[in-house]
Amino acid sequence: MTSITQRSGAEPRERTGAFVRPLAPEPKLSYLSRWLPGYFWQRLVRHRPPNRTHLIFALADHFEPAIVPEDGRARAPYSEQERRLERWCREYPNRFGSYRDAEGRPFVHTYFYPAEQYDQLLVARLAEHCRAGWGEIEIHLHHGVEAPDTAENTRRELIEFRDRLAQKHDCLSYRGESPQPRYGFVHGNFALANSNHGRGCGVDSEMQILADTGCYADFTLPAGAFHRAQTSKINSIYECGRPLVNRAPHRKGVDLARGRTPQVLPLVVQGPLMLDFGGRSGSRRLHIDNAALTGSNPASLHRLSLWKRAAISVEGRPDWLFIKLHTHGMDPRHEEATLGSAMQKFVRELAGGAEERNEILHFVSAREMVNIILAACDGKDGNPGEHRDYQFKRERPLASDARQREESAF
Fold it and tell me: What is the rounded distance in angstroms from the CA atom of residue 221 to the CA atom of residue 233?
């Protein structure tokens, strides 16, 4: 009999910097029944990408220097956090700097740093790494673990961390002339907008809070294939279909389409969630690929073929494929999949073989991916890499700078 495994290696449990709490077991088929019908419908109606495609790659790194894999309640000693971060910032350019996309850009990470673990010196060092061209920092949040969080506390925590990143570290982006910093988001434990049966969040109106505080897109999904927070809507880029104050409004939504400018932010940008019927030679198991890069399941050209078949795109622009992966870069268990030879081999083959596979490769940050998505919605043609700064830009508006100088004078 064919068995089912999740290729990311993740267990259906909650993990944060606070503690690990196993979830009550449920039959695997009850989880799969949430999204398998939509999956098979997609396979029937979603056409394969055209032969010549632009592959737009982003890696959402749930970046937690304090992680202790053996004990979710613990924090690594500060000296260990410094050592991990310094080694990362030193080794990453050395190991990946020679692999470039079609525009000469390196493979970058978007570092979703946990708000509840903020440390000024550590974030300053990571921001220096990013300014050298190796990625961007956005917002990650674990909350509501020991007890359900409140809307007021969630709003406060997001605003405080947002403003620290923007004002102390010059990390976030802006849209137009508005002085409000804008950010991308990943929810710890995948429990976005209280979607995990009250665990790991507690705030039904979280999506509205994200909108109010400047979030342009959420990059949380997919969750683990057997995770309670996994939505039935998969392999999509979309606007939430229910009022943002509702619990888990992202469970349904309107797919983005060419010729229709999105009206509801934050957008939901999902990574691939695919069934793999032949990933391992001689295996009789059916594997589930949720786009997670782990030590036991690093990136490979075989997985790339699955991610491409997910065909995540803006409707009417099938030749621009958006592939959003995720990982935990500071987890020692996953080093082979982030810094190690397996990842180096994948990026080398990805970049070196793109022309042979009839692909045009673009390495982007999460922010740049959203800008290209918005450009696709507005009917832009040509090279998608030209639209990396289409709406959300790293430059602070001049009016905002003047206001800051005026405030500092008093």
Answer: 10
